[in-house]
Amino acid sequence: MAEKPTMGERLKELRRERGMTVRELAEKAGVSQSYIYAVEAGTRGSRVGKLIKIARALEVDLAALVEDEP
User: Fold this and answer.
1) Which residues does UniProt call coiled coil (predicted)?
2) Contact indicator for 67, 6 with CB cutoff of 8 Å
């Protein structure tokens, strides 16, 4: 059975599917580039408020980022 992707992996996949750079996503979401990098790498957790901003910037539901997270 394949492992389910982490939130960071889903974030990176969604960002790339939309042809966005980390910089573009960070600007659109109103967060720092280092924050996006850290979440994608799994080295930093995320607050719900920031996740909502990121989801809106990606034009997806919040569940697309956080489903199956422990």
Assistant:
1) none
2) no
- Please write the tens of the pLDDT for every residue from 2-56: 688 889 999 999 999 999 999 999 999 999 999 999 999 988 878 889 999 999 9
Concatenating the DSSP letter of every residue in 3-69 gives PPPPHHHHHHHHHHHTT--HHHHHHHHTS-HHHHHHHHHTSS---HHHHHHHHHHHTS-THHHHTT-
Q: Supply the pTM of this predicted model.
A: 0.86
Phi, psi of 40, rounded to the nearest 5 degrees: -60, -35
Place of tokens 């994608």: 40
pLDDT of residue 45: 77
* Amino acid making up residue 16: R
